[in-house]
Amino acid sequence: MTSFEEAGTEETVTCLHMTFYHPCQEDKMMFRGLNFHKREQVRVDEMPKFGRDSNVCRYNLMDTRVSRIQFALQFYRKLNSSEFCFEIKNMSKKTKLLVGQTELGYLNKIDLPWKCIICFGDYQILAEIEEGESVDYFETYLHLAEVPILQERCLPSLLPIPENGISPSLFPSQSKSPMEIDENES
Fold first, then answer.
1. Which residues are CB-neighbours of 70 under 8 A, at least 6 positions away?
2. Could you state, in chain order, the average pLDDT of each consecutive group of 10 residues for the chain (186 residues)?
3. How far are the Cα atoms of 2, 13, 56, 153, 183 from residue 130, in angstroms, in the given order?
4. DSSP letter at 125?
5. What would you report as the CA-atom Rg of the chain, rounded to the nearest whole angstrom?
6. Which residue segments constitute the domains of the chain, with CATH numbers given?
7. Contact call for residues 132 and 44 (beta carbons, < 8 A)
8. Contact indicator for 92, 70 with CB cutoff of 8 Å
9. pTM here?
10. 135 CA to centre of own chain
């Protein structure tokens, strides 16, 4: 056997990609304590915390409006499964944490969806999980967003457009209830 044949199989690592945004990041530099564009290994028995207390939190946000510990992540494997997941827990007594469409109060926790937006105050974090197999550690990979992750977009109306081509949503002052019109009327 050659050394290539005897070599262990390369193990993939679960990676949590997190893209951070705050409207005042250029002025206040609240993300200066984070290492961007560098994969960082985290042991599975660690529970990485995000917040302003550098003695407790692995990921520091330099902002007095952020709680000492804002939130924490727990990496785990689902029971009777090979699937790895993250659990997110709100550690702030003052600020609610919005994970996707779910609002978490103090000490509430949920499974982190494979792709979601985490919000608190003016902070927006896009979290995306890249699946892996390692049972010893996972990785984080932090990114900085130049533009808001959440943007209000003008979505097209989902109402059917009448034959005359004028959408009733263009006239918000008109009644929303359907009107019956005789086809012979002009």
1. 49, 50, 51, 52, 57, 61, 90, 91, 92, 95, 97, 120
2. 58 94 94 95 96 96 96 94 93 96 97 96 96 93 94 48 50 48 58
3. 32, 8, 26, 27, 57
4. E
5. 24
6. 15-144 (2.60.200.20)
7. no
8. yes
9. 0.75
10. 23
